[in-house]
Amino acid sequence: MSQFKVHILGCGSALPTMRHFPTIQVVEVHNKFFMVDCGEGAQIQLRRSHIGFTQLSCVFISHLHGDHCFGLIGMISSFALLGRTAPLHVYAPAPLEAMLASQLSMFLHDVGFEIVFHAVDTEQHAVVYEDRSLTIETIPLNHRVACCGYLFREKPRLPHIRREMIDFYQIPVSQINNIKAGADWELPDGTVVPHERLTRPAEPPVSYAYCSDTRYMPALHELVKGVTLLYHEATYGADRADHAARYFHSTAAEAAQVAKDAGVGKLMLGHYSARYENEQVLLDEAKSVFPNTILSYEGLTEEL
Questions:
Q1: Whole-prediction pTM value?
Q2: Any idea which residues carry the catalytic annotation?
């Protein structure tokens, strides 16, 4: 079973529709859950996706437009009502800290858990989160306000132990971690059994790049080169390229060009304009440039 999943809870843009929620995603890596953008309806969509409120440890906000952050205070309120005690880490552009503090002061006098705010510099490409299995980097984007995407990179895994070889050489269980880390094994007669004979290579690490609202950036592919899955906004099709340029968004073809130039494994489109009642036109446009393209939709879980 995959240990790296992307759950799509919302993939619409600013204007509400009966078909899509605003942008909300949850990235699941080795049983850790990270929310990426928190539009209205985040709580409902968490319930529908069967992701527990207590499972979320961090929220990453790309920029301060309402369709990407209006759901945050409501979700925090529900966390408080449910008696959450674990800290919640919020990564976002610096101005959100004061606004969030004001909302908390007005609506939630005793949250009951710590909210740890991490100001993100949207103009820098930098690692903002790291643990034993994962790093998360910022991806500077070009929108009407300060905006960045996020790049989730799985760290290389340790190789798999070949159980039959461990049994054959009667290697103690206490030595398995050392062998995974690269140690050889020496037999009583001095013969050295190389590490490579005792293990199988691990699966290659996977990665996910989330590129939220942005104009087409010809150099963006350099920051997302070779990722397993790229999510890139495709608010408009070529028929509304003038709107894309005016409002600092991308067309489906432009998103596909980034994917093609970056040599990614798969492209996922999202952030659809409410003008489109059927996103097939966006998919067809993108696939003409980058064939391995899919549409995001509420309820989709993409396993990497």
A1: 0.92
A2: 67
